[in-house]
Fold these 2 entries.
Entry 1:
Amino acid sequence: MHRIRIFNKIAPEGLAQLDPAIYETGEDVRDEEGILVRSANLLDYKFPDQLLAIARAGVGVNNLPLDRCSQAGIAVFSTPGANANAVKELVLCGMLISSRDVTGAVRWVRRQAEAGADLEAVVEKGKAAFVGPELYRKSLGVIGLGAIGSLVANVALDLGMDVYGYDPFLSVDAALRLDRHVHVVRDVLELYKKADYITAHIHYNEKTRHMIGAEALASMKPGVRLINLARGGIVDDEALLAALDAGKVTAYVTDFPTNQLVTNPHVIAMPHLGASTPESEQNCAVMAAGELRDYLENGNIKNSVNLPDVYLERSGIQRLCVIHKNVPAMLASITALLSRDSVNVENLSNKSKGDYAYTLVDLGARVEPAVITDLKGLPNVIRVRVID
């Protein structure tokens, strides 16, 4: 039986993907082979030796120690696209409330009522303070054209906006999802110069940390409105606050509030609501559990953030799953060991991602335990798993 430890609340539709006859799941499970997690911080978590995989019901994985996982041969999965519609809708909300100051207007009406004012008498005079532009015929810049960014770009076109997109790592699949009327630019500076609204949908890492800083802000159109539902560290808060005070940026909508940000009247801060819909949580849980199940039962990898995607239909009698360093002659070393035991290779797939590679081998017969031992002892082999 596979043991799965649960961190955070995982939607029951996701847990239903794990047959209780095969999987033991729960918060109290120990010596786990798999982990299902949302936002719990596992950066300092001591992994049991048995741990094979972590599935994150969501996209961001900054709560997981990726380097340590890779070195230990632990596959880390995320669920790209599962929460895309939820985030897309909140981006639209962010553009509207940054334009029309809807939240400020609602607070004003409530204060008038609490003060005993005759609302019918005061609203016509008071509403002038909350006038703001329409989205129609304005320009939107979308940084990152993945699952979420492409949805945002396409729906903005439906609103009559002129859309500019920037993504230096634009995949073929993402490009095919984009409406042909989206202007894909090669230089983000072009997007900064043309966009009335800018929304970011990129991962947070050392390369993207403070991507939107003083220099980027200075390149933007005066009065630009920024929406950041990706990660807080993408924006340099100090530079952003200075730009708000100077009037360079009209409003900043963020899903990552800080004490410093919320004191500025031009900041609209939300408590990380991007994927907080029942539909999104269900989609993420189902996808994460499915990825974990397929890896544990079949060795297939899809949507891993630290290992390459490898899928192989089952054939033969036995399957070997080998995680190893991405160095020359590894495949030759693996197959040489198997040929020593005169076992026929029915099917094989090998792919790499950065410093790591993954090899799936389907065999026509079961190999001797000594071969598996020797395989584990090969230089640069990190983990070997046998699936019958």
Entry 2:
Amino acid sequence: MKIAAYSVAASEKPYFEQWMKKNNVEVKLIDKPLSINNLNEAAGCIGVCLQQAPKLGDESFYQRFAEMGLKYIGVRTAGIDFIDLASCKKYNIKVTNVPAYSPRAIAEMGLTQALALLRKLGEYKETMAEGKFSLNPNLVSNEIYNLTVGLVGLGHIGGETARLYRALGANVIAYNRSHKMEYESVVEYTDLQTVIEKSDIISLHTPLTPQTKNMIGAEQLRAMKKDAILINMSRGGLVDTAALIDALQKHEIAGAGLDTLADEAKFFRKDLPLDQVPADYKTLAAMPNVIVTPHVAFYTTTAVENMVNIGLDNIYRQEEN
């Protein structure tokens, strides 16, 4: 048995080595994302283990994948929106993911960004750089226990996020397609419009689907409180980036914490000259009331180890059975 792993980061390699030694299985480590151009590197393998943003390709990619004898795509993350599931079904390719590698890691990043924005740390840094250290009435903050936090999506990450905010004393409301009993002690379930209109902090934790794409657009941003903060730890495509920039520039909302952007595949996980970085990122990053991180909310030692181990186990166990 042999597995090919793509998009392997330096921080992941020790865990790959440990897994190979434990299971006596060879894993070919490839640092680049999987595409039709490097698919041949997986020759002789039973499947591939990967995490990436770029889409794998059109139907011809999956046809070639199957013709090579590859049977499994083991994703090391929760999201699988970059995979054409219809083509996988057609060519009998099994897809697995890691739905819960460390929900707490992502929940903590969302909370960190929200608190930094709530206390206006970016604005303070900007004014202090100008030598202004006096009390500024425009920079007075609120305290989290006085606020309502609205969650869109209440899966593993949304649930951990709810628990963190509730522990700090916030009122937590949530919109989810189904009511989950395990979170009823920390959230009040409501509809999406209520979350948008009533929340001081809105945190997104829902998958990207055709139905959720741009679910936060100009209309929703206008409906938010003027002092609301938007947090997106999920998928960039949930938010209309142009509409968000416009709302921030018009002061229709107070700030945004973004670990993901709609066009992130062009530059996240890469090192590029600044002239190749998209203009929308530059605009957002220059705003003192915006925090942008390059899809690293998951990036803790606990999460990395779990992603590698579970991603590989998903392939190994299917083949063994």
